[in-house]
């Protein structure tokens, strides 16, 4: 655009300016225009020659000496002052900061081509179409000016034209940026360089100054135009950080002032709007951002649908979350838990059910494979570890009920945990913090642990843990002896392959790989001696049990002292007390063994009490 065209688009010096200043310099005003925010003493002739509305108002009055006209619905005194200057031929420029006001005031005053050639309305419209709509920054500035011009700015399609221009410009910038990242590989194929910096998202910072309703309309238009989900997500993150973190009431919910209440309403609207604008694609926004929105939604008491949507989105990608993400503070009454356990439970339910959902948010192809190495299985292992760490973090809470702890631990399927060390640690912390827990509740809690899936270190700790029920300790010692026996059998390279217990193959293999056969054998012998001492202590605690089982005692007396360990383990293995283990992989006991076990447990508890 050359200099001559720019002068035509701006309101350059009018040829009537000097004439108007000369003709009206000493003429007293004959009309007073009252608008919202000011009063102007002017002259009828320059106004009625340009404005159809003022001409009609003057013509409707029979009194030719009318001197007062009210235009209370006119959008602002500043806009009327510019229109009056135009009528008088006074020089000023049309810019992006006043073009929206000029369009509105020109429409209200009917300053169209029907009353004067090159009137204010056509001048403002030409500037809007030819200059503003071709520049994204100017469109954003015009939208800011339109915030105080609603609904007239919407009726004149100023807002919609600027929004469409922004969406088109952002889409064009994205396409241009994508082309700039195309390059040829060593094989001669054209591909996208993902390492190159994206330069098509510079508009993200510009849009953060918009009011939330205008911002929502811009994002919706961008989605329709096909802007990348990652760009939409980055813009949402940037907008939320500016609109939510700058408000003090979000972190001071006890304030009851009028200003804080209004700010809270604004923040609630921002959160709900951003949630509605979130892309459906997985990982379009960081999961930490989703958890931040969820915390804000809980704190601001947003709509239930908003919170459930966030929980569903988080559940679909929970495998990339961290422990800090799950620690959502509870904002309820003082007697509640420190962290919001119910929300985390709903997130885990969404994660567990995502494979069965036909309306899942993410691409279904990600979870098509059911093989052990599929992404879903890997995600399950990660979430199981995350849940165990979460349980250990909330376990010391004095207000945490046993039912809530158990429902969190039982949400994931049984095959999610290959090792139960984390679950055992969490339960041990809970038992330590709730020492007044009844024996029945402690037994119920320990049934969650599969003692066959404890590592060597965790098993050694559990065998000496007095907080565990006696039944659980017996199971630990039994499975520890099985593991050591299988490991000793595998340490002889020349021996025949003997069956091993499936639960200890990984553990014994890792131990043998880490040590030489001779050191491994010596270490296992030392551990065997330690377990003998543990079993001796156990026999002291089970004196009453041994008296009731006369047959077992007779067999032990007949056996040699060096075979005591082997005989004892065989008898212990026949007891159905291990049939109640939480392990789903162990075989079920017989009915007679079950009845014997019940009597054994009752007498054992009576003797320990």
From TrEMBL:
UniProtKB keywords: Coiled coil, Ubl conjugation pathway
Q: Does the keyword Hydrolase apply?
A: no
Give me the stretches of Low complexity compositional bias: 579-591
> What PROSITE patterns does the database record attribute to this sequence?
BTB (PS50097), NPH3 (PS51649)
Record domain BTB: where: 29-96
Q: Per its UniProt record, what Pfam families does this chain match? A: BTB (PF00651), NPH3 (PF03000)
Give the record's pathway: Protein modification; protein ubiquitination
- Asked if Coiled coil is a keyword of the record, the answer is yes
InterPro entries to which the protein is assigned, alphabetical: BTB/POZ_dom (IPR000210), NPH3/RPT2-like (IPR043454), NPH3_dom (IPR027356), SKP1/BTB/POZ_sf (IPR011333)
Q: Where is the NPH3 domain?
A: 201-483
Q: Which domain of life is it from?
A: Eukaryota
Per the record, the coiled-coil ranges are: 521-555
Region described as Disordered: 579-609
Tell me the protein family, please.
Answer: Belongs to the NPH3 family.
Name under which the protein is recorded: Phototropic-responsive NPH3 family protein
This chain's source organism reads Salix dunnii
Q: What is the lineage of its organism?
A: Eukaryota, Viridiplantae, Streptophyta, Embryophyta, Tracheophyta
């Amino acid at each position: 655009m050359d200099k001559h065209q720019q002068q035509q688009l701006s309101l350059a010096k009018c040829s009537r300016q000097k004439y108007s200043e000369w003709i009206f310099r000493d003429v007293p005003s004959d009309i007073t225009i009252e608008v919202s925010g000011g009063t102007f003493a002017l002259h009828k002739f320059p106004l009625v020659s340009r404005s159809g509305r003022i001409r009609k108002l003057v013509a409707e009055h029979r009194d030719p000496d009318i001197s007062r006209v009210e235009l209370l619905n006119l959008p602002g005194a500043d806009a009327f002052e510019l229109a009056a200057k135009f009528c008088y031929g006074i020089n000023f420029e049309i810019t992006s900061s006043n073009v929206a006001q000029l369009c509105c005031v020109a429409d209200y005053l009917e300053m169209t081509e029907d009353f004067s050639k090159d009137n204010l309305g056509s001048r403002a419209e030409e500037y809007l179409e030819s200059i503003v709509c071709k520049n994204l920054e100017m469109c954003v500035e015009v939208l800011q000016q339109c915030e105080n011009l609603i609904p007239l700015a919407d009726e004149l399609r100023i807002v919609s034209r600027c929004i469409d221009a922004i969406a088109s410009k952002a889409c064009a910038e994205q396409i241009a940026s994508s082309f700039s990242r195309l390059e040829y590989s060593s094989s001669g194929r054209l591909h996208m360089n993902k390492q190159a910096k994206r330069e098509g998202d510079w508009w993200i910072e510009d849009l953060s100054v918009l009011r939330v309703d205008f911002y929502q309309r811009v994002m919706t238009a961008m989605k329709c135009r096909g802007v990348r989900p990652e760009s939409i997500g980055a813009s949402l993150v940037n907008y939320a950080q500016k609109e939510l973190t700058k408000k003090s009431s979000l972190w001071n919910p006890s304030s009851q002032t009028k200003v804080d209440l209004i700010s809270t309403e604004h923040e609630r609207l921002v959160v709900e709007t951003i949630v509605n604008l979130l892309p459906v694609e997985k990982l379009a926004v960081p999961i930490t951002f989703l958890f931040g929105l969820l915390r804000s939604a809980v704190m601001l008491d947003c709509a239930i649908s908003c919170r459930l949507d966030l929980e569903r989105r988080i559940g679909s990608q929970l495998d990339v979350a961290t422990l800090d993400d799950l620690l959502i503070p509870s904002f309820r009454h003082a007697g509640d838990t420190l962290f919001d356990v119910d929300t985390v439970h709903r997130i885990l339910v969404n994660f567990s059910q995502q494979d069965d959902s036909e309306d899942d948010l993410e691409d279904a192809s990600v979870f098509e494979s059911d093989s052990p190495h599929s992404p879903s299985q890997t995600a399950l292992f990660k979430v199981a570890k995350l849940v165990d760490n979460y349980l250990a973090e909330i376990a010391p809470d004095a207000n945490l009920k046993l039912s809530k702890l158990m429902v969190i631990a039982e949400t994931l399927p049984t095959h999610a945990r290959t090792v139960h060390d984390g679950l055992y640690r969490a339960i041990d912390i809970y038992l330590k913090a709730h020492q007044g827990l009844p024996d029945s509740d402690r037994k119920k809690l320990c049934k969650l642990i599969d003692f066959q899936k404890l590592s060597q270190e965790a098993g050694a700790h559990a065998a000496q843990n007095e907080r565990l029920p006696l039944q659980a300790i017996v199971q630990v010692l039994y499975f520890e002896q099985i593991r050591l026996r299988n490991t000793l059998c595998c340490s002889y390279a020349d021996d025949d392959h003997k069956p091993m217990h499936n639960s200890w193959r990984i553990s014994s293999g890792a131990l043998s790989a880490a040590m030489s056969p001779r050191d491994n054998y010596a270490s296992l012998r030392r551990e065997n001696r330690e377990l003998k001492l543990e079993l001796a202590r156990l026999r002291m605690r089970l004196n009453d049990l041994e008296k009731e089982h006369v047959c077992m005692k007779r067999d032990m007396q007949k056996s040699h002292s060096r075979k005591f360990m082997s005989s004892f383990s065989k008898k212990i293995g026949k007891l159905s007390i291990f049939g109640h283990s939480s392990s789903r992989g162990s075989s079920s006991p017989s009915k007679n063994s079950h009845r014997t076990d019940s009597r054994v447990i009752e007498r054992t508890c009576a003797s320990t009490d």
